[in-house]
Design brief:
By secondary structure, this protein is α/β, with parallel strands linked by helices. The chain has one domain (7-298): Spore Coat Polysaccharide Biosynthesis Protein SpsA, Chain A (Alpha-Beta Complex). The protein has helices at residues 15-26, 46-61, 79-90, 110-120, 160-163, 170-176, 179-185, 194-201, 209-218, 272-298; strands at residues 7-11, 35-40, 67-72, 96-101, 104-106, 127-131, 145-148, 156-159, 222-226, 231-233. The protein has an eight-stranded mixed beta sheet, sandwiched between helices. The longest helix is centred in the last third of the chain and has 27 residues, at 272-298. The N and C termini lie far apart (59 Å).
Amino acid sequence: MKKLAPIILFTYNRVNTLKVTIESLKKNQLASKSNIYIYSDSYKSNIDKKKVLRVRKYLKEIAGFNKKKIILRKRNYGLAKNIINGVGEVLKKYSNIIVLEDDIKVSNFFLDYMNKSLNLYEKRRKIWHISAWNYDVKATSIHDAYFTRTMNCWGWATWSDRWKYFDKNPNKIIKEWSKKDIHRFNLDGSYNFFSQIERNLSKKINTWAIFWYAIIFQNNGLCLNPKNTLVSNIGIGNKATNTKKPNEIFGTTVSDLSFLPKKFPKNLIENKNFLLAIRKKILIMKVKNKIKYYISKII
């Protein structure tokens, strides 16, 4: 394997989920050979101060990596700005990176998959993004991973020559995209991802990942996804920045710690079988959620 990609970890005030993330990462054989950059955001208020200081105390104790660099934010950046700036900063030094947040538990072969994928598709400019998470769907495929237009950000990787195009500009997207663009962006109308662009414009939310997906989409890029997910989001709840409520659509967890993708697709085209399976999964969950809602109103 070529030179290993550095790991970037973003954290705020949840030391318990952070510990799980770090311990699961250290179970990867490549962890001890990998460099890790940890960006610790500063506290928003005195309420969070003790929690942030507890996180920063733990960060000093972390061992088991080739090199460790801790970046302590002196003021609160917020998750979106912290990630955008941190990824851009590290990619000035490296050609590729692997990114995690402090609530992502990874499988034993997470780093193997990420590094192999980065090396395999480094010069295949059609591929913009490597995902470690995936929807819990089944579809026929001879490969252990496949391509779709959608970007998943619970454990991901990319290259500097792709990330340089990142731009968070909701106003430009809303003005320039056609109805056909929006329909395709929304997985052919199955899920309203575009609403996140609109809510960022109106300041109702402040996120980054939807704009990375938008940039990939605008450039006709593809994202690699493992057939079985290699990560679990263990931070969904009231303490999370964005995902505060459990969602059956995005609730996939690691079920096989021994799964290591070995067969990768050579043809750089979207896998229609998995795309249809994902759309079907989303539509079924939407119908179930509506039924639950109406039942709750009757009761």
